[in-house]
Amino acid sequence: MFKGKSKAFKATVIGLVALVVVAIAGILGLGLMGGGTRQSAKAESTYTTAEVKEGKLTSTTLLTGTVKANEEQYVYYDSTKGELASIAVNVGDQVTAGQVLLSYDSTEAQRAYDAAVRALNKVDRQIYELSTYGVVVSETGDEQTDGEATANAQRTVDGQMRDLQDARADAADAVNKAQEALNDTSVKSTVAGTVVEVNRDVTKSATSTAQTVVHIVNSGSLVVSGEMSEYNLANIKVGQEVKMTSKVYPDKTWTGKVTYISDYPDNANGGGTSNANAGSGNTSGAKYPFKVTLTSDIGDLKQGFTVNIQVSGNQSGLMVPVGAVMTEDSTNYFVYTYDKASKKIKRVPVEVGGADGANQQITSGLKAGDIVLANPTLDLKDGQEVTVDDNATD
Known about the structure:
Elements: H1 2-41, E1 46-47, E2 49-51, E3 53-56, E4 60-69, E5 72-76, E6 84-87, E7 94-95, E8 100-104, H2 107-133, H3 143-183, E9 186-188, E10 193-198, E11 212-217, E12 222-229, H4 230-233, E13 241-246, E14 254-261, E15 287-294, E16 306-312, E17 316-321, E18 326-327, E19 333-339, E20 344-355, E21 359-364, E22 371-373, E23 387-388
Parallel strand pairs: 1-23
Antiparallel strand pairs: 2-22, 3-17, 4-12, 4-16, 5-11, 6-8, 7-10, 8-9, 10-11, 12-15, 13-14, 13-16, 14-15, 17-21, 18-19, 19-20, 20-21
C-alpha cells in the first residue's frame, strides 16, 4: 500500500513540475517575443536629399519712406553778419545756382576790406622804395672802411626786405579774409529750383533758434528717404530695384532704385537694443538711413508723401532648401552632404547669403551638383551612414 501511494505521489509531483516548466517557458517565450517587438519598433530615421543648384531668391521686403527733394537749400539768418539789408527773391520765383538770394548790411565789411587793401598797398610801397633806393652809404675814401660799411648796409637792406616780405604776406592774408567776409554779406543759391518760403520778419537774437529766411526746392528731383532695421540691412543692397505705392493714389505705382544705405545708424537709435524676435516687427534696434531714387516719372508724387516700398530680392547664386542649413551658435553654419555610393554624410562648413521662405543662398563651401540632406537632425554625426528616401530626392 505504502509503495503504491509513493508511486502515485511521485507521478503527481512530476506532473506539477512539468506544468510549472511549461508555464515558465511560456512566460519566458512571451518575454522574448515582447523584447523582439520593442527592438523592431525603434525605426531608423529616413532623410530626403536636395541637389545644390543655381537659383534666385524671391524674397520681398516692405519698407516705408517719405518723399523729399533731392536738391534743396535752406538759408538761415546769421546774426553774426549783422542786419538783413535786402531779400532779392519771392515765393514762387525760379532761381539758378549762383543767383543772389539776400544781402546783409555790408558797411562794416566794406570798411574792413578797404583798410586791409590800404595796409597791403603801404607795404608794397615800402618794398618798392627799399628795393629801388636801398640804404645810402657815406664813403670815407678808405677802401677797407668803405667795403665794410657797404657790406653792413647790404645786410641791413636784406633784413629789412625779409621783414617787409613777411609783413606783405600778413597783409595779403588780411585782404583775403576781408574779401571773404565782404562776399559773405551776399548769400547765393547753391541749387536751381523754386523758392517755396521767404521770411522777412526774422529777429536778431543770439539765443533764438535757427530762422529760415529762404527755402529753395528742386521739385523735379525727388528722392524717398527712410530708415531700415538691422535685419533688413543684411538683405538689401545698393542698386536693388523697388516698387512704390502711395495711399493717396492706391492705383498707381512708381519704380526706383536703392542708391544709398548708411553704414552707421542714426543718432537717435544708434544705442538701442534689438528685440530677439525679429519676425515680430517689434524692434528697438539700430535704424539705418537709406535713399531711393525714382526711375519713373514723378507724376502725382509730392514732397511729404509717405510711400510703401517693396524691395524684391534679386540675389542669385547657389541655393539649398532653408532646412538644410544648420548652426550651433547662430554664427557658424554647416550642411551635411550625402554620398550615394557609401550612403554616408559629411559635415561641411558653409557661408550663407540671403534667404526667402524656401531657399537659402550659399556663398561658400558648396558647388553646383553637390547633394545635401534637406531635413538633417541634431543627432547626426560626421561620417554617419543614413537611410535616404530616393523617391523624395529633389
